[in-house]
Predict the 3D structure of the following.
Amino acid sequence: MANRLLKTALIGQGFMGRAHSNAYRQVRHFFEVPFDIETTVLCGRNQAALDAMAATWGWHETSTEWRAIVERPDIDIVDIATPNALHAEIAIAAAEAGKIVFCEKPMAMSAGEAARMAAAAKHVPNMVWHNYRRVPAIAYTRRLIDEDRIGRVFHYRATYLQESGTDPTRRPSWKTQKASAGSGAMGDLMSHVVDTALYLNGPIAAVAAMQHTFAEGRDVDDAALVLVRFVNGSLGSFEATRYATGCRNANRFEIHGSKGMAAFNLENLNHLQFLDATEPRNLQGPRNILVTGPDHPFSSNFWKPGHVIGYEHTFIAALGEFLRALAEGQPFHPNFEDGLRVHTVLAAIEQAAESKQWIELL
Amino acid sequence: MANRLLKTALIGQGFMGRAHSNAYRQVRHFFEVPFDIETTVLCGRNQAALDAMAATWGWHETSTEWRAIVERPDIDIVDIATPNALHAEIAIAAAEAGKIVFCEKPMAMSAGEAARMAAAAKHVPNMVWHNYRRVPAIAYTRRLIDEDRIGRVFHYRATYLQESGTDPTRRPSWKTQKASAGSGAMGDLMSHVVDTALYLNGPIAAVAAMQHTFAEGRDVDDAALVLVRFVNGSLGSFEATRYATGCRNANRFEIHGSKGMAAFNLENLNHLQFLDATEPRNLQGPRNILVTGPDHPFSSNFWKPGHVIGYEHTFIAALGEFLRALAEGQPFHPNFEDGLRVHTVLAAIEQAAESKQWIELL
Amino acid sequence: MANRLLKTALIGQGFMGRAHSNAYRQVRHFFEVPFDIETTVLCGRNQAALDAMAATWGWHETSTEWRAIVERPDIDIVDIATPNALHAEIAIAAAEAGKIVFCEKPMAMSAGEAARMAAAAKHVPNMVWHNYRRVPAIAYTRRLIDEDRIGRVFHYRATYLQESGTDPTRRPSWKTQKASAGSGAMGDLMSHVVDTALYLNGPIAAVAAMQHTFAEGRDVDDAALVLVRFVNGSLGSFEATRYATGCRNANRFEIHGSKGMAAFNLENLNHLQFLDATEPRNLQGPRNILVTGPDHPFSSNFWKPGHVIGYEHTFIAALGEFLRALAEGQPFHPNFEDGLRVHTVLAAIEQAAESKQWIELL
Amino acid sequence: MANRLLKTALIGQGFMGRAHSNAYRQVRHFFEVPFDIETTVLCGRNQAALDAMAATWGWHETSTEWRAIVERPDIDIVDIATPNALHAEIAIAAAEAGKIVFCEKPMAMSAGEAARMAAAAKHVPNMVWHNYRRVPAIAYTRRLIDEDRIGRVFHYRATYLQESGTDPTRRPSWKTQKASAGSGAMGDLMSHVVDTALYLNGPIAAVAAMQHTFAEGRDVDDAALVLVRFVNGSLGSFEATRYATGCRNANRFEIHGSKGMAAFNLENLNHLQFLDATEPRNLQGPRNILVTGPDHPFSSNFWKPGHVIGYEHTFIAALGEFLRALAEGQPFHPNFEDGLRVHTVLAAIEQAAESKQWIELL
C-alpha cells in the first residue's frame, strides 16, 4: 500500500529551520511510518538565504508570504520556526485552514496567546517542538518513573544554564528583544525546564520566583529562578539563565525519590545517572548509564548500542513519534495543550517574580 | 622558648566530640603553633561512654557537670559539642568566665540566642566550627575570587543534600527534635550552606523560601529551599535537605562570574572544578583540579601533592589557624560574629518560608 | 555552475551500509562541496533486505552482483561495506575500473592484501572509513599537537573496550569467524586504535604483544594487548578486546607530553580532556572540553556550540572532507596507503604475539 | 586488663617517617587493639631534623645509630622507612634480634634481598607497608571478588601514573639513584601495582615488558610497561611512570569479569566504580560508589558515612589490622612473604624488559 504523502511548509529559515529540515530528511531513515514527507515549500523573509537553504535541504519551493502558504490547499503540514512574535498568528491561521500544525517553543508570547492557539488547534493534529522529551535519557527517566523505580518523589531540581549573555562580542538578536521574543531566558530556556518537569514530575501547585536582567538596556529577562511545589508533594526548584559562565548547554535535572535518584545533563546527552536505593546500601552509587541500548528509548531506531546520537536526533524522534501517532489515530504529546500548560506555568513564574508573592496554580 | 599550655575542656561526647578530639591530638603534627594543647577534661552525661572516649582520645579527666568545668580557673578553652539546645548557656557562661570559647554549628537555637552569645563572647577569643571554610578546595575558591579569577559574580548556587530522612530504619535522635536541635536541615545543613556563601560571595540582601517536613509527626524541617539576592548583585539559590536519595554528603556550590566558574562537591573533597573564561573559547572546559598542592591551601601542612586528605583535616586546619591567629593577636574567622550572621540569614529564611514573603536583610 | 554528479554504488547491506547511506544523504546538508551525490545502486546478497534498505535510504537500484556494478561505466564511486573477506577483490576490481573507491575498515584480511589494494588504488581517489579521525575531539587533539600544546610525547596509551564477547545470547556472526573477518578484535577494534595512534602520534618502531581467545571453539582473537615503541621516542600500549564487561564502546586514548595531556573516550564522543602543563601548577587540572565549538573541528558544519553530535557525523565529516579534497585536487587521509600502514602494524602485532618476540617495524 | 605496651623504633625521618608516625599516634583512636604503642625512638642521620620531628610527633628519644636501636632489648617494633638500600640489612638484623619488623615498600633492592629478608623474618611478626590494600575501595573490591560479583576475570589493567619526572625544577633525590633506591618507577610505583594485582587477581604466570629512562644521565627507570598473563587465565597490563603529565597520583585499576566490572583511581580515594553485569542491560552503568559506609571496609573505624578519609588512613588501618592479627595470633598480609612475591614479579619484569622475552614465573 502506498504511503500517504504529506506536503510540508516550513516557515522560518534560522537555526531551528535547519533542525526541522533535517528531521524531515531523516525521519524515514530511522522510523517506519506510513507517510512520505515532501519538503514542499520553505518560507522566510530573506530570499537569498531562502534559496541557499532550499538548495541545501531540498525544499522544492520558497516563499516570503506565509499567508499564501497557509491558504494553499495542497499543503498538509505547516511548521512554524519563526521568531516567537509570529507563532500565534501563523498557528491560528494554519489551524483554521485545517493544517497539521507544528510550532517551535516557546509556543507563544504569553499564556493568553497560547490559550488561543490551543483552542484554534483543537481539531487539527498538532505538536510543539519540545524536542527534549525525545532525548533517550529523558524518555528513559519517564520509563523508570512509570516502573516505580524512583518511588515517591521528594525533590525535583532543574537548571538550564547557558552563557550567551556573558559574551560581549555577541550581537543582539530577536531572541534578546521583547517585541520579537516576548521574553529572554524564560521562553528560550525555562520553557524547556517546565515542559520536562511537567512530563517527568506532573503538575505544579505553586511557585515563587525572581527574574533578573544583567545586560543594561535589555528589555527581557536574562535569568529566572523559581521555587516550586508540585501537586505530588515534592519540592522543586527551576533556574534558567544566559549568564552561567562555563555552561554551554547545561539543561540538567535531578530527581530524588523514595526508591531511587535520576540525574541528567544535556551536555552529556547520551548518559543518565540512576541510583537504585532499594539495593544494599554498600552497593549503591549513581550509575552512569549510556542510554544507547539495548532496550532504551529509540535505541532500535538509530545505531547499535554504544553508538551515541546527537542533538538533531531528538527532532527526528519527535517527528517519528508524531507520525506514528497520526497513523494510529493516537494522541501525541507534547501538543498545543501541553504548550499551554507550559505557558500557564511561565505566566505564574512571571507573576510571582513581579508581585514577590507565591502564586497558586490550582 | 616554651610553648604556652592551653588546657582544654570538651563538652560533648558524640560524633562531633570525636572530630574535635582528633583535632586536638593532631594539630601540632601539622601546624606550627606556639601552644601545647592539653586535652584536660571531657564532659558529657553518660559516664561509661565518657570513660571509654577519654581512654581512646587521651582526655585526662571526665566530668558530667559542665558548670563546674566552666568555673575551673585552670581551663583555657571551653569547646562546646553538645546538642544545640545547650550551646548558648554554656557559651555565655564560658565567655563570662573569660575562657576561649569554641562552639559547634549551628551556633544557636535562634538568631536571638546567637546575638546574646556573640555579645557575651566579644572579649574572649572564639570560634564557630564551620569547618568547611578549611576544605582546601573552598579556601582555594576564596583565593581565586580574591585574585579576580571569577570576576563579577552572576550566580551562586548551593545545595547540601543528604538522605538520612529516607532511611526508615534510622532512629530519631536529638537532631530530629525541635527541643534539642531547634531545627532540622536548617541548622544541620543550611547553616553550612549559608556560612560558605557568606564566606565566598558576601552578604545577602533578601530571601524567599519554603520549608517542608516529609516525616509524619516530626517537628523540625526536613528540607528548605531558598531564593537569594546577594548584595553584590548576584542571584543565588540554596537548598538543604535530608531527603535527597542517593546523596551521602553532597555539600555543593557553583559560582558563575564574568571571568570564570567554580564548582565543588564535598563528596569529592579534594577536587575543585574551575573554568577560566578569559581563555580562548575552544580551550575552555571545567578543570578538575586536585587541590592537594603544590601551592594550594594547607597543602604544605599535610601530605605531598597528590595525597588526599579527609573530613577530619578541616577541623585540624581550623584549629591550626585559630591558634596561629591567637598567637599573632589577629582576628579569626568564622567567629561568633560570623555565626550570628549565619543565624540572621537562617532566621530570615524561616520568616520568608512562614510568611510566604520576600524578606529583606538590609 | 552545476555540481558534478557522483553516482555511487554501495556494496554491503549491514550496519555499516546504513552508516554510509546516511553519510550520502546528509553530506550536502552540512558540507559545501561542488558535487551532487546520487545513491545509485545498493548491492548485497539478500534481495528482500536490499529492497527494504533501498526504500528506506533512497537507493535507486539494487543488485546482487557486485562485479556487474563495478563494470558499469556510469558509476563513479564504489563503496565497500561487505564482510572483510570481500574487500580486496572488490576494491582491486573497482580501482582497476577507475572508480573512486571507499573501503570499510579493517581494509583487508592481511597486510599482503592491503598492499595489493593500495597498489591497485594508486591512481584513483580512495578512502578507508577510519571515521574516528573525524570525531571533533580527535581532530582537535591533532590540532593541539600541531600547535605544540602537548609538547614532546612521553606516553601514548590506547584501549578499545567492548563487551560483545561476554554476552552468551549473542549469535556468532561473520565478525567472529576467520574465513569472513580475518581476525576478531584485531581487525574490528585494534585497527581503529592503530589508525588513531598513527594519526596522533606517528609511526611505530617496535611492538610486543599477546592475543587471546576466550570463547571456546572460536578461530579469531577476542583480545589483544600490545607494548609499543613509537619512532618519536614515546612509550605506548594498545589494547583491544570484546571481553571488557561494562564497556559499550570505550575507544579511549591518553597522551602525556612535556607540555600537556589529552584524554578521550568515544562513549563521551563530544568531550576531550586536556591539561595544560605550562600553567601554574595550582591551576592545572584536566579540562573537560565540550568540543562543539566555537572554533572546534566541524563545529561550523553541524549545530550551534553546545549542541552535541553523534556517531554518524564522523562518517558525514569524512565524506565531506574527502569530497572537498577531491574538488581541490588535494590528498585525502586516511586513504589506502594509510590503511596499509595500519595493516603493517596489525601484522607485526600478530607476529609478535605468535613468536613471543619484539617485532621491529622499521 | 592492661594493654601490652609496644615500644617502637622508627628508622627514617622523611615523608614516609611522618606517615608512619601519624599511624602510631592515631591507631588507638580508630582501632580497638589490646596494645599501647609507645613512640620510643626515632632514628635518622640528621640530628637537627630528628629533634624537630621528634618534638612534632612525640618520639621520646632520637638516635643516629640504627644498629644500637635494633639491639636494645626494650624495643618491640623496628619500623624501617629509610632509603631502600638500607632495608635488607636493618630488617634482617631486627628480625634476628627477634623484633616485630615493619618495612616500607619497595621491601628490597632485589628479589634476592627480599628472599633473604623473608627468610630472616620467618619467625617474627612482620609487615610490608603496602598500605593501599587498606584503601577502603580496594579492600571493598577484594570483597566484591570474594562474593563472586566480578565472576571469572577476563582483564586486569593497572597504571600508576605520576609526573614528577616532568618537573625540571625538581632536584634529584635518593629515589632517582640506583645506589640508594635500586630502581626508579619500578620500586616506587610498580611495586604498588604488583602488590594490588596479586591481592585482587592472584598470581602471575608470565610477563613481557619494556622499561625506559627519559631523563638523561639517570641510572634508574622512569617508566615501565608490562603485559601480563595471570594464573587465573585473565590478561593484564601494568604501567608505572613518572612521566605521566597531568597525573598527580593516579594509581588506577580496571577489572572486567563475567559478572561485573570494577575500576579505581587513587586520586579519588573514596570512590569505587562498580558495574553489575547480571542486571538487565538497560539498567547497567558503572556506579560511582562512595566507599565510606555503611558496611564498607573500615567505615565503622573512621567517620560517619559520607565523610571521606585520606591517604594517611591507609597506614592507620594497616597498623590497626596488623595489631589485631597480632593479638589474635592470626596471619597478617601483606607480610615479607608477600613482599617477596612482589619482588619476584618485579625481577621478572626487569628480566623481560632486558631480554626482550616473555618470562614465565611458574
In short: Chain D has a mean pLDDT of 97.
